[in-house]
Amino acid sequence: MNRQTLSTLFLFLSLFVVAQESPTLSTTTDEVVVTGARYARTLAESPEHVTVIDSAAVARAPNLAQLLNEQAGIVVNGAYSNYGKDRSIFLRNGANQYTLILVDGQPLIDPSALGGAVDLRLLSLEGVERIEILRGARSLLYGSDAVAGVINLVTDRDAPLDPFTVNLRAAAERYNTFTGNAAVSGRTEQLDYRVGYDHFTTDGISEATEPAGSLEEFNRDGSIRRTLYGNLEWRPTEALTIRPAVRRAIFEGDYDAGAFADADNRYRNELWLPSLAVDYRQATWQLGARYNYAATDRVFDDASFGESFYKGRAQQGDVFYNYLPSEAFSLTVGGQLRHETLATGDDAPTATNVSPYLQANLNVAEGLLLEGGYRYNHHSVFGGQSNWSLAAGYRFSERVTARLSTGSAFQSPTLDQLYGPFGANPDLQPQVSASYEAGTQVQSRTGDRRVVVTVFQREIDQIVTYDGMLGYQNQDELRDRGVELEAFTQLGRYVRLDGNFTYVKGRLRSPDGTGGTSETEDFFRRPRVTGLLAVSFQGASPFTARLTASYTSERPDILYDENFVPINMQLGAYTILNLYAEYKLLKARNLTVFGEVRNLTDTDFTEVSGYGTLGITPRVGVAWSY
Questions:
Q1: What is the pLDDT of residue 514?
Q2: Range of 110's domain?
Q3: Could you tell me if 91 and 131 are in contact, meaning their C-beta atoms sit under 8 angstroms apart?
Q4: Cα separation, 440 vs 529, whole angstroms
Q5: Segments of the chain with pLDDT less than 70
Q6: Cα 117 to the chain's mean position, in Å?
Q7: Are 619 and 596 within 8 A, CB to CB?
Q8: Cβ–Cβ contacts within 10 Å for residue 236, how many?
Q9: pLDDT in the model for residue 23
Q10: E strand map for 449-494
Q11: Minimal CA–CA distance to 581: which of 17, 8, 1?
């Protein structure tokens, strides 16, 4: 898109909005978060920075991968590739398996996945009210895999006081892509419930791209996702809350043979995720219990190699006690049990980890918050391992705050690495990390402008790598450091400008095979610089529009030719423009018509060498609640 066209778009939207009337948008530190502690607290009461993606942003997003890809410090490789292409989360340059996904604070564990990474294609945004992101080493409360950070999907539990509400939503977009979901929910004095179904289907594009000069036209690779979920909150007394939930998701789609190689392959992944949370609260203490069970069945039907399957089963239970005698002090004491099983044939190896932990918060003086904790892990394979966490936050005034934090984390070797059919090593040790973070937040007196700056460093040791001769080994070391900037400003009554910027640089040290070490600062598909700039227009309550520009810098990639000889290459930088608008109808404003154009300028770019990306993609839809 040229400069004149872009200017015309801004002018059109500005004129439309100025004709409306609307209240001033603002945010405060009184917002309650549930990530980073075993009890709900406001952002002002946390010495750590938590990014909150609110319900409006969740409702606008077409899928989880593209929504996360817009956040500071997060790159989701594959977010704009074919709908069925796998997605990889790189949080602060960390590998895919180093980010732990939570659903209502409980981990989504998948022993069937390579490295233990969760398949983002399974996760629909239907039923998700908000998303909380806590970066850094977070094993103290959440255990294995929380090396780079945690992403908590918080489901909708704050419905209006109405015993029965219907919510319907449907959207259509390019490539014969359709999404439809329906939910019924209700809330009474003692009972909340929500049951929903989401269906996604697409013809997609060819996952792999045709080689240069080829006359062959590759087939489209379609996919389908079906999600059924339900949650219940029962309050039999003022002190007791019981919250059972279940999520069933099935994803299946076509995939190709590799870069520049078409094939008629099929993939299927099924997830069962039941959970239970129980809380008993008194004036100065709380007792909580959590349990979830994750069952994933992955099947690869390869036209050349036949069918292979991976069945993962994981259970995790948590019991904890919160002592809250005053606003100045809190203490959490808990224990966690995690059990995993992986079946790839006749064998089904298991692993168990038992972890007691404690965390304390202290308001030392007015404006000074301290937090610290310790965790001990006893794993059935590698034995004992400890984690710790320290954080401090200081409020200079209502406008300026600062924070410091440090902590450690670990990732257990996966069952596939320990006992799998290829290169297994039962003597593997956990990958361990330490992170250091400092930040400050400055906001205006009225709260209509805010800037958050964070500098960070993370060290990961004993990284598990695969060697064709030796199999899996603990041998690499990774150092990452960088800076994140998040900011917004209210430009008058109608316009809001927000964005983020991330710069991260890593250094990987590996044995060179001769007794020495080699170093690199290049990481495949992981950019050093990413950023987002967005302009939001909020007119009268019926109308909202948002224009975003996201930037991804150059990054290296690797490709193997027909003789498996590696070819190193550089992927070019690119900018993606997305435009979204919605309008609310009817007297109750309960009918919403929305439209979006993603990749507005039809940018030609590459996320993975040899694989295609989506072009300009219009989307229209309607949402109704009653």
A1: 84
A2: 3-625
A3: no
A4: 21
A5: 1-29, 157-160
A6: 11
A7: yes
A8: 10
A9: 36
A10: 449-467, 471-491
A11: 17
In contact, 191 and 234? CB cutoff 8 Å: yes
Token pair of 179, please? 């999404």
pLDDT of residue 346: 75
Q: What pLDDT does residue 289 have?
A: 98
Tokens of residue 88, six digits: 């990889």
When divided into structural domains, the chain yields a total of 1
Pairwise CA distance, residues 535 & 551, whole Å: 15
Is beta strand 591-598 parallel, antiparallel or unpaired with respect to 149-155? Answer: unpaired
* Residue the block writes with tokens 């960070």: 456
Rounded CA separation 568/333 (Å): 50
Contacts by residues 112-118 (CB-CB < 8 Å, ≥ 24 positions apart): 112/296, 112/297, 112/298, 112/310, 112/311, 112/312, 112/342, 113/296, 113/298, 113/310, 113/312, 113/414, 114/416, 115/414, 116/144, 116/145, 116/411, 116/414, 117/88, 117/89
End-to-end CA distance of the chain: 40
The encoded tokens of residue 480 equal: 């990452």
Q: How far is CA 436 from CA 407, 455, 463, 520, in A?
A: 7, 8, 19, 22
User: Rounded CA gap, 19 and 29, in Å?
Assistant: 31
d(CA 506, CA 519): 10
Q: Give the strand pairing for 41-42 and 32-33.
A: antiparallel
Q: 7: part of which helix (H) or strand (E)?
A: helix 3-18
CB 410 within 8 A of CB 124: no
Residue with tokens 């219940």: 232
Residues 6+ apart with CB under 8 A from 200: 124, 177, 178, 179, 223, 224, 225, 226
Strand pairing of 495-511 and 471-491? antiparallel
Q: Are 258 and 610 in contact (CB under 8 A)?
A: yes
* Cβ–Cβ < 8 Å for 526, 508: no
Pairing of strands 149-155, 99-103: parallel
Helix (H, G, I), strand (E, B) or coil at 318: strand
> Per DSSP, what are the bridge partners of residue 226?
199, 250
Considering the entire predicted model, what is its pTM?
Answer: 0.93
Q: What Å distances lie between residue 299 and 177, 302, 306, 312, CA to CA?
A: 24, 9, 10, 12
Question: From the CA atom positions of the chain, what is the Rg in Å?
Answer: 24
DSSP 342-407: EESSS---EEEEEEEEEEEEEEEETTEEEEEEEEEEEETTTEEEEEEEEEEEEESSSSEEEEEEEE
Q: Among residues 58, 134, 152, which one has the least CA distance to residue 91?
A: 134
The amino acid sitting at 160 is P
Token reading at 577: 């423009």
Single out the residue of 527, 532, 523, 583 nearest to residue 558, CA to CA: 523
The dihedral sign for the CA sequence 233, 235, 236, 240: positive
Q: Are strands 149-155 and 128-135 parallel, antiparallel or unpaired?
A: antiparallel
* CB contact at 8 A, 30 and 44: yes
The CATH number of whichever domain residue 359 belongs to comes to 2.40.170.20
Residue 342 near residue 18, CB atoms below 8 Å: no
- Alpha carbon 278 to chain centroid, angstroms: 25
Q: Report the candidate in 342, 363, 339 with the shortest Cα–Cα distance to residue 351.
A: 339
CA distance 603 to 496: 26
- Say which residue the tokens 């410091």 belong to: 404
pLDDT tens sequence across 547-569? 999 999 999 999 987 778 889 99
Residue 276 is which amino acid? L
Q: CA-to-CA distance for 359 and 23, rounded, in angstroms?
A: 41
